[in-house]
Amino acid sequence: MFVVVTGGSGSGKSEFSENLLIKMDGGKGGRFYLATMFPFDEESRRRIERHREMRKDKGFTTVECYTGLNSLRLPAVKGKKPSVLLECMSNLTANEFYQKGGAGARTPEAVMEGIRNLRAQTDNLVVVSNEVFSDGVSYDASTEAYRKALGEINRRMAAESDALIEVVYSIPIYHKGGPL
Fold first, then answer.
1. In 3D, which of 111, 10, 15 has the Cα closest to residue 60?
2. Contacts of residue 49, Cβ cutoff 8 Å, sequence gap at least 6
3. How many CB atoms are closer than 10 A to CB 66?
4. What is the pLDDT along the chain (180 residues), one digit of tens a residue?
5. Sequence ranges of the binding site
6. What is the distance of C-alpha 79 from the center of its chain?
7. Around 109, how many Cα atoms within 13 Å sit in the side-chain half-sphere?
8. Which residues are annotated binding-site positions for GTP?
9. How far is CA 25 from CA 1, 10, 21, 95, in A?
10. Is the peptide bond before 65 cis (omega within 30 degrees of 0)?
11. Is 51 a residue of the active site?
C-alpha cells in the first residue's frame, strides 16, 4: 500500500506516519525509515535528533537518503518485502533541487522515479510531505521554483497513492482512501 501523509509544520504528521506504518506492517517484515534531512546546520541536527528520539523504540532501521532515491536498494527481511517510511518529501525535493549532483530542474521526474523504485521494493510505503502552499507569502524565484517542484511531486504522488491523509493538529483527515 502507498500512503501520502501531508500537513503543516508541527501538525503531528511524523508521529502519525510512524504509528500508521507500524500498524500497516504488523511486524511481518523489516521496517525502514528513510531520512532525507541533510544535516547542514545546528537546527537541522537538533531536528534530526528529536526525530530519532521519537522513533527509537519503534523498530525502524534508519537509512540516510539525501538524493538519488531511484538507485536505492533495500534488502528483503525474513524473505519478505520491507515497509518504508520516507520522511520527508520536502527535504528530498530541496536536496535534489539545490544540491550539487542533485536532479535540478528534473527534480519531479527523478523523485517520482525514486518513489516507483521504492514501491517495487516494499509492501508498504508511507511518504510524509509538508504543506507549504497556503502561507500567502511571495518568495524569490528560486524558492518559487522549488515550491512548484514540490507541488508537482505531491500531485503526482496523490494520483498514484492508495490513500492521501492530511494531519491537522494531530487529527487525520482522509482525502483519498478510508481510515487505515
1. 15
2. none
3. 18
4. 999 999 998 899 999 999 999 999 887 768 999 999 888 889 888 888 887 887 888 889 999 999 999 999 999 888 889 999 999 999 999 999 999 999 999 999 999 999 999 999 999 999 999 998 877 778 899 999 999 999 999 999 999 999 999 999 999 999 999 888
5. 7-14, 52-55, 64, 87
6. 25
7. 4
8. 7-14, 52-55, 64, 87
9. 10, 25, 6, 28
10. no
11. yes
**HEC-encoded secondary structure of the chain:** CEEEEEECCCCCHHHHHHHHHHHHHCCCCCEEEEECCCCCCHHHHHHHHHHHHHHCCCCCEEEECCCCHHHCCCCCECCECCEEEEECHHHHHHHHHHCCCCCHHHHHHHHHHHHHHHHHHCCEEEEEEECCCCCCCCCCHHHHHHHHHHHHHHHHHHHHCCEEEEEECCEEEEEECCCC
User: Cβ of 12: how many Cβ atoms within 10 Å?
Assistant: 16
Catalytic residue among 17, 32, 34, 51: 51
Amino acid letter at 165?
A: I
Written as nine digits, the cell of 78 is 525474513
Q: Which residues pair with 107 in a beta bridge?
A: none
